Amino acid sequence: TSEMLHNICIRNLVRKYCRGVTAERKVQLQQKVVTSAVFRGKKEGYQQSLNQPFLDTRLKESEINPRVLQLIQGETIKYVTPVIKYDRNGFKARERLLVLTQSSAYVVEMAKIKQKIDYATLKGISTSNLRDGIVVIHVPEDNKQKGDVLLQCDHVFELVTKLCMLANKQNLVKVVQGSLQFRIGAGKEGTMVFAVGQEPQVFKAKTGQLTVV
């Protein structure tokens, strides 16, 4: 009888907890479960991210240029965040916005859409195992795409989680060690090397590789 009562008590406590979870809290928990599956034990900084709630978005729709909103009219914006985009040739750093809708990801410069990636064609998402904010979005080799997208974001766990959940491609996220290859375009590939140093920096090495410290 004691064992039966114990099980009933546990079930009742669980039921009370679940019924008390708000819709916002449920969304947070669902996202954190995906983050855990992708990053736990793989990327530095994951443990410190556990107690940091994900925001719905880093920029409100009203903060986006009206021209951009007009260009993506008909799609519901789900998440927006400032990012640093690195050119595939020369690796010059440029300030951009990454706009995620229900069906596509947009790299935006002021009033221009620089690149659109349909989730259906997304080939993969890569990041390193170190404490950096690099995210590489891998795209297909076709005339519509210039090449893979090289980004740096202050909220890497949040960004990758939002992106892979919207694209429904959690299994395509890779946490790499040492280096990774990315497509520059027209059948060409580049290399990104990850290293540990005293200060964080991103630069083009003498070897021509993009080095992330």
From TrEMBL:
Domain of life per record: Eukaryota
Domain TH1: 43-213
Assigned GO CC terms: myosin complex
Protein name: Unconventional myosin-Ih
GO MF terms, alphabetically ordered: cytoskeletal motor activity
InterPro entries, per database record: Myosin_TH1 (IPR010926)
